[in-house]
Specification:
This protein folds into three domains: 1-39 and 412-429, no CATH class; 41-173, Leucine Dehydrogenase, chain A, domain 1 (Rossmann fold, 3-Layer(aba) Sandwich); 195-347, Rossmann fold (3-Layer(aba) Sandwich). It has helices at residues 2-9, 13-27, 32-38, 87-104, 124-138, 157-171, 195-211, 227-238, 261-271, 285-289, 328-336, 344-347, 350-364, 370-395, 399-418, and strands spanning 43-52, 58-67, 75-82, 109-116, 147-151, 219-223, 242-248, 251-259, 281-283, 292-298, 314-319, 340-342. α8 links the parallel β6 and β7 (242-248). The protein is an alpha/beta fold and 429 residues long. The protein contains 15 helices and twelve strands. 46% of the residues lie in helices and 19% in strands. The radius of gyration is 21 Å and the shape is globular. α2 (13-27) packs across α15, α7 (195-211) crosses α8 and α7 packs across α14 (370-395).
């Protein structure tokens, strides 16, 4: 098993997610057609986006949109603006979205988009033109009942506002449900900003209860102080946990007695980094991962816990707020050591769940209070966690494998009742 995981660790993200899906399908004894249908996206777009730059030159950016699956409903997934965006990454992320939506019981398939660009190098006007140009390029393929984009890395509610406005121009009418993660002023949902972090904390609470970890005073280390990490640290602190370490891309701070995340984040807002927070010891991101703690929350980048450092992880529980922070081989090593890992497809699903709530509110034109949003999120995350926990106990496997099995089984059942399995037209989808 570890040898298989090592091979998967050497693969690109697309091969890695395929490996996870195939392993889940095989463990459940499913029709081989289930894997064949899920291994590749239903549709993949590559588009060129010309943008007139501030100096008068025209730069043509490359963009992508992967619609992995529409078995359960419209494709759903973010749009990232990043210089390292590439086709296999976008395809893999769309497949993970299919798993995530199925796991949470959302009426969506998986989608993902991206543009090869460093948005920090663009002026506000150039960024707006790029955002609108991307929507023009993919407008024929998206819609509230076809594909519903959302923010992702280096995109935000303002970018979504430009996009939904451009789509309205093209369609000559508003369709706010075509994009989620919008500002509240134009149909965004209350509670969306902190939804991913709130979902992470829900998973921490559910796992801690089952493992006998008392959150009152429990030692928590959070790697990452972006949107997800900052909200996670703040919310877990409110639950009575002791946040002993917090970091950003420049490094971290550590205080065994505990930190007030709000004060650390205020320091970061003033200085640009958490480093140098008064009364705390400076540590590296690598050192943070190996601290002795009750709960470790990687909320930054992928591939942070690897086969090299997994033997030195001293947390009782790891909850993945980031996408892919634990490599497949490291996951196996932690499982063998008795360290539970709540996988990203479950732990960080709060964002897409509240995006679903936003879509529902847009479709009905009826908007919920923040308390209603948070209550519904808690119910859905709690139910999904219980299903994954029960599956991992039944199958004597890791929580990650349990999550994939819950999701793939749900997708396979939908394929069966729709007639996609053992049918001559199944490949058409």
């Amino acid at each position: 098993m570890v040898e298989q995981a090592l091979n998967a660790e050497m693969m690109n993200p697309l091969e890695s997610v395929r490996w996870q899906i195939r392993r889940a399908a095989d463990a459940l004894g499913l029709d081989p057609a289930v894997y064949e249908i899920l291994k590749s996206p239903l549709r993949f777009l590559e588009v060129s986006i010309p943008v007139t730059m501030d100096d008068g030159s025209v730069h043509v950016f490359t963009g992508y949109r992967s619609q992995h699956n529409d078995l359960l409903g419209p494709a759903k997934g973010g749009i990232r603006f990043h210089p390292d965006v590439n086709p296999d990454e976008v395809k893999a992320l769309s497949a993970w979205m299919t798993i995530k939506c199925a796991l949470l019981g959302l009426p969506f398939g998986g989608g993902k988009g991206g543009v090869i660009v460093d948005p920090r190098e663009l002026s506000p006007r150039e960024l707006e033109e790029l955002s609108r140009g991307y929507v023009r390029a993919i407008a024929r393929f998206i819609g509230a009942d076809r594909d519903v984009p959302a923010p992702d890395v280096y995109t935000n509610p303002q970018v979504m506002a430009w996009m939904v406005d451009e789509f309205a121009r093209i369609k000559q009418g508003n369709e706010f449900g075509v994009i989620t993660g919008k500002p509240v002023a134009i149909g965004g949902s209350l509670g969306r900003t902190e939804a991913t972090g709130r979902g992470v904390v829900i998973c921490v609470k559910e796992a801690a209860r089952r493992l006998g970890i008392d959150l009152q005073g429990a030692r928590v280390a959070v790697q990452g102080a972006g949107n997800v990490g900052s909200h996670t640290a703040t919310l877990i602190h409110r639950e009575g946990a002791r946040v002993i370490a917090l970091s950003d891309s420049h490094g971290g701070v550590y205080r065994p007695e505990g930190l007030d995340p709000r004060q650390v984040l205020d320091h970061k807002a003033r200085t640009g980094a958490v480093h140098g927070f008064p009364g705390a010891q400076a540590i590296t991101n690598e050192e943070l991962l190996e601290l002795e703690c009750d709960v470790l929350i990687p909320a930054a980048l992928e591939n942070q816990i690897t086969a090299e450092n997994a033997p030195r992880i001293r947390a009782r529980l790891v909850v993945e707020a980031a996408n892919g922070p634990t490599t497949p081989e490291a996951d196996e090593l932690l499982f063998d050591r008795g360290i539970r890992v709540v996988p990203d497809v479950l732990a960080n699903a709060g964002g897409v769940t509240v995006s679903y709530f936003e879509w529902v509110q847009n479709m009905y034109g009826y908007y919920w209070s923040e308390a209603e949003v948070n209550e519904r999120l808690g119910q859905m995350m709690g139910r999904a966690f219980s299903e994954v926990w029960d599956m991992h106990l039944k199958q004597h496997c890791s929580l990650r494998n349990g999550a994939y099995m819950v999701a793939v089984r749900r997708l396979a059942e939908a394929m069966r009742v729709r007639g996609w399995l053992g049918h001559p037209d199944a490949a058409r989808r």
